Batch of 2 targets.
Target 1
Amino acid sequence: MRTHLPSRKVIAVLTAALLATGMAACGNSDTGDKGDDGKITLGFSQVGAESGWRTANTTSIKEAAAAAGFDLKFDDAQQKQENQIKAIRNFIQQKVDVIAFSPVVESGWDTVLKEAKDAKIPVILTDRSVDSADKSLYKTFLGSDFVKEGRLAGEWLVEQKKAATGPVNIVELQGTTGSAPANDRKKGFAEAIAANPNLKIIASQSGDFTRAGGKQVMEQFLKANPKIDVLFAHNDDMGLGALEAITAAGKVPGKDITIITVDAVKDGMQALADGKFNFIAECSPLLGPQLMDLVKKVQNGEEVPARIETQETTFTQEQAKEALPNRKY
Ligand code: GYE
């Protein structure tokens, strides 16, 4: 019987292989290793639960992550940037494979994004963007063009009021102060209505994207301004809150005051179909499937486009009546 002792060469190869395996196990995110269960771990920091849009967005993300077989670590920041920064730091510590988040405000992210980059964890922005000058701090931004939404709302109003000979008084309910959708929708709307000097924004204040905020600020607007012709609300929820204030003030929403909003969630579409709202610029919250696709690509080291824009439309009252029965959220 002959026994084969391993040659020196074979031992050297085996040792090298063992070392390589050991190294891979240490550097989870470096090597694309997916942890013990082989699943991709995604850390997601959500803004909060401030609106119907946000609830639909959270559902979309949770469902898509489950369908993709990811291990999702989900954190709700309750509309606070400090909570989001904490959550991202936790994700870094836990060595998740990919971090995705919807930044509540635009500014103040460079430090934590740099920490993720140093830890070699790719970051994807979804829904809202950041104003960081260094674009290498994140891989891509998936979301809507908020300036366009504001512009579409303004253009519709310009068309409606083209015969106006006197001043048309507009009040504006802004979204969360410092957030990309509030900044951009305000900008797009203002640019569009500049086409008609009769259209004037006489008051503009944040209602924080919530129904309660919309109601409260609209009450103040109504007290301070005897003649309000138009309300532009940066989302459906604030518009829905404002409806209560308008009705309580003895005015008919959709008739005495023209109401334009953004989002097109089910409750907003219902108000539009009922004639209480007059126009909605759509903003889609169903970002989950596209986001998971990007997570997979980024995890595999594939190149992804720097910006992916959501496809959206607008709704009149008639169009809302048609679309409502099939509206999922
Ligand atoms: O329009 C609003 C939500 O960031 C696009 O946030 C999102 C906005 C959405 O609270 O309803």
Target 2
Amino acid sequence: MRNFLSVGDVDNLDKLVETALQYKADPFRDRALGKDKTMGMLFLNPSMRTRLSTQLAAKHLGMESIVFNVGQEGWALEFEDKAIMSGTTVEHVKDAAPILGKYFDILGIRTFPSLQNKDEDYSELYIKQFIKYSNIPVVSLESATLHPLQSLTDIITMKEIMEVKKLNKPKVVLTWAPHVKALPQCVANSFSQWVNFWGEAEFVITHPEDYELSKQFTKGAKVTLDQEEALDGADFVYVKNWSTFTDYGKMYCNDPRWKLNSKKMARTNNAAVMHCLPVRRNVELSDKILDSPSSVVTQQAGNRVWAAQAVLADILRAGQTGQ
Ligand code: CP
């Protein structure tokens, strides 16, 4: 693996999941792999889980990590080639990224979409410019349209639960949930992309009218506007809000009827409830469900370390072999 932006960068998903679970069992088994290496982690947007889990993952591999909250502490970056920088941006990525490429061995970037311009967001300009100009491997810590470390974690968590519950081809339901503001489609896009690629689940996506996601990620899943029907017999329910994709970045429906409740949960096969966090309690999900044994959100967030460690190890190994 050279860069990690989507499931398309993964050679063998089963092997990556297996590696992550091996790290969970023995975090320091490859403690020398990242010796004398440093990862730079640039955050243009806030984070808790991604930042800390990736730092821990690097530490387990013997690698230093340095965090730069560029969105708060750095110069405002320009990403458009040939821009006339007479506005608010101070430094061009074309100048900044090669320097980061000299400082670090791996670069992690977190950036969110503007939700103003679909074409711009879906072009993934920011992360692609870092790849173009840094000349070192780039790991997405969540980009404008995808959140691959989260999705790998989600697959790892489902694998663990499948093992415990002896599930073969589980029914996995991604359900839209209410929220108070328009959120990116990243987590939902990415989860859809990874579950479809994984191919080990019956995958159903349910959302209110007008909230369809981009088909490039959902292709292969069943999509329905009937949440209750979707939940019938579900083994996993992934709860997430996202803003509209077609009429981009809007919030039409904040309908509390879409909130998961005990009556709806009763339709499932004692489903494990997933959420990437942070979660708005009693808006997206009730205390009752989040604090119940059905919720696996802490297990999920804990697994972020092992997902990141498996990805970093793969990149470090590829560097050793010159792939
Ligand atoms: N799920 C997730 O990415 O959490 P953070 O935003 O805290 O990193």
